Amino acid sequence: MVCLLTRYLIRRRLLNQLSIFRSSLDLPCCPVVKPLMLPDFTEGKPFSILRYFSSRSVDLGNVQGPAVIDYSSLLQEGEFHRLADSTLNDLQEKLEEYGDSVQIDGYDVDYGNQVLTVKLGTLGTYVLNKQTPNRQIWLSSPISGPSRFDWDQSSQTWVYRRTKASLLPLLETELERLCGEPVELS
């Protein structure tokens, strides 16, 4: 409480109230704020709190930062949209057909605003959407959770880099497990 009040009083340039407050409570103040470090506010000079509480650069030595992303390896935006739209449209058609073959209350497939939603009633909901800046398709699954799929040029499929799982076989496996009927999405 003392530190918050100290900061407030400094911001409001009420140095006199700060010293009265500190002396009346006889409590130690925030160690960062010391009266000797504060400027005299009565001189009429502009005061910048940032000057007194700014962070200084820290030498981290040989600590490695995150790996550099090779943006030249990413798909061009037009190619990404073509591949992702084709994948999501094909999935929509095949999942609508699949819905006719399974008897699940609340089964619904919806595609709008570049988001494909597959509701399986009480079994859960799948959400697939395009992430253009990352050139990825994101999947939210009631079984495997969130996944981010990148286009793999060599295998010509969307692949989750962490597990090396392909999007379509993963969906086939999970939907069969949830619904009890096999589905062909590839």
Automatic annotation (TrEMBL):
E.C. code: 1.16.3.1
Species assigned in the record: Aristolochia fimbriata (White veined hardy Dutchman's pipe vine)
Localisation per UniProt entry: Mitochondrion
SMART domains assigned: Frataxin_Cyay
Protein's recorded name: ferroxidase
Transmembrane segments annotated in the record for this chain: none
Entry annotated with the keyword Transmembrane: no
Keywords assigned: Ion transport, Iron, Iron storage, Iron transport, Mitochondrion, Oxidoreductase, Transit peptide, Transport
Top-level taxon in the UniProt lineage: Eukaryota
A single GO BP: iron ion transport
Gene Ontology CC: mitochondrion
Keyword Cell membrane (UniProt): no
GO molecular function: 2 iron, 2 sulfur cluster binding; ferric iron binding; ferrous iron binding; ferroxidase activity; iron chaperone activity
Family: Belongs to the frataxin family.
Chemical reaction(s) catalysed: 4 Fe(2+) + O2 + 4 H(+) = 4 Fe(3+) + 2 H2O
